[in-house]
Amino acid sequence: MNKCIAFHSYKGGTGKSTLACNSAILLARKGYRVCLLDLDIYAPSFHLYFSKEPRKWINDFLTSSANIQDVMIDVTDSFNSQQRHTDSIKSNDHVGEKEVEISGKLWVGLSNPQKKEIFKLETADTNTKRQAIRRFIHLRELLMSDFKADYIIVDTSPGIRFWSINSLAIADILLLTLKMSDLDIDGTRIVAEEIYRCFIELGSKAYLVYNMVEGYCVPRQTISNKEEISNISGSTIAQKPRNDIASVTQLLSQQRSDDDDWPSSLSTDLGIEIISFIPCYCDIQFLRKEFLTVLKYKDHPFTFQIEKLIDAL
Ligand SMILES: Nc1ncnc2c1ncn2[C@@H]1O[C@H](COP(=O)(O)OP(=O)(O)OP(=O)(O)O)[C@@H](O)[C@H]1O
Ligand SMILES: [Mg+2]
């Protein structure tokens, strides 16, 4: 059965684009036909990730009669030939190694990053906006019918803005991505109550994805020594030496002891299940192409987390 999955969050910088891209690539690597859409209309990024210029942008599709075939770019072969090239440099014996090649298909649809194009959509009159919403629905239908997409993966703009909400309207599954900060949590409560609930009532499924949680850069510790924790009571992370990972870990443990299981409490309050806890892997932030982690580093724990996430969907 085909599915349309959207990554959204209240606050920016929660990892939506990274997770969307890696999920799409991993699904394509597994042999599925995948369409990845940059519907972060206000601040697109996939044109930078994929370094491609489409014949037509998603903006053209939404506001005019641009053809879907001119919007979607087939990037499967460019990944596979890049991969073969890297393999051949690494070892002549392994030329053509197929391990991390994409065996399915991957297309991307890009949003136009030019200010005037973003502005044009933002300030469009009601009729144009109404037509664009119809085209949004049509976009999904075309990808399912003409491209025979098994999965449509959608990256969205954060927050409660016109195009973020409309991007969610085409999704069957909403992945509400958040970090473990009060701002993210309070924000998620707001969008859940004001927006997601309405989509859930209309039949979409929603899940919480906690991203960049402790457990890798900062090891996760269970509270084994209460006395040790009481010694650091009253301190803040900012007062601690920056490289003192052990004390940050203790502070996190203490924080947990104060409010034992708030990720689950949020989930219970909202009636939205948690689908994933993805640790913060600071090493992937140093990669120049973090959106390709699952392709380049198939044994990285981040790749396993993305596998788990897509298996759970
Ligand atoms: N699990 C993770 N571990 C470490 N770094 C991560 C993880 N997930 C995402 N990041 C990093 O966090 C940063 C923000 O990610 P990303 O751009 O995907 O967020 P976003 O939600 O799309 O942001 P925006 O709302 O601005 O579009 C990037 O540098 C990315 O590499
Ligand atoms: Mg993004």
Describe the 3D structure.
This protein has one domain: Rossmann fold (3-Layer(aba) Sandwich), CATH 3.40.50.300. Helix content is 47%, strand content 16%. It has an 8-stranded mixed sheet, with helices on both faces. Helix 9 links the parallel strand 6 and strand 7. Helix 1 crosses helix 15. The longest helix is centred in the middle third of the chain and has 20 residues. The N and C termini lie close together (12 Å). Bound molecules: adenosine-5'-triphosphate and magnesium ion.
Provide a short characterization of the protein structure.
With 313 residues, this protein is α/β, with parallel strands linked by helices. The chain has 15 helices and 8 strands.
Determine the number of helices (DSSP H or I, runs of at least 4 residues). 15
What is the percentage of strand-forming residues?
15-25%
Trace the largest sheet across and list its strands: 3-4-2-5-1-6-7-8
The major beta sheet can be summarized as: 8 strands, mixed
The name of the CATH architecture is 3-Layer(aba) Sandwich
Q: Roughly what is the average pLDDT, rounded to an integer? A: 84
Q: How many E strands?
A: 8
Instruction: Give the bound compounds.
Output: adenosine-5'-triphosphate, magnesium ion
- Estimated radius of gyration: 21 Å
Low-confidence stretches: 94-99, 222-242
Q: What is the H/E order?
A: EHEHHHEHEHHEHEHEHHHEHHH
Shape: globular
The rounded distance between the terminal residues' Cα atoms is 12 Å
* Superfamily (CATH H level) name: P-loop containing nucleotide triphosphate hydrolases
**What is the CATH fold-level name?**
Rossmann fold
The helix fraction, in percent, is 40-55%
Question: How many structural domains?
Answer: 1
Structural class: alpha/beta
What is the C-level CATH assignment? Alpha Beta
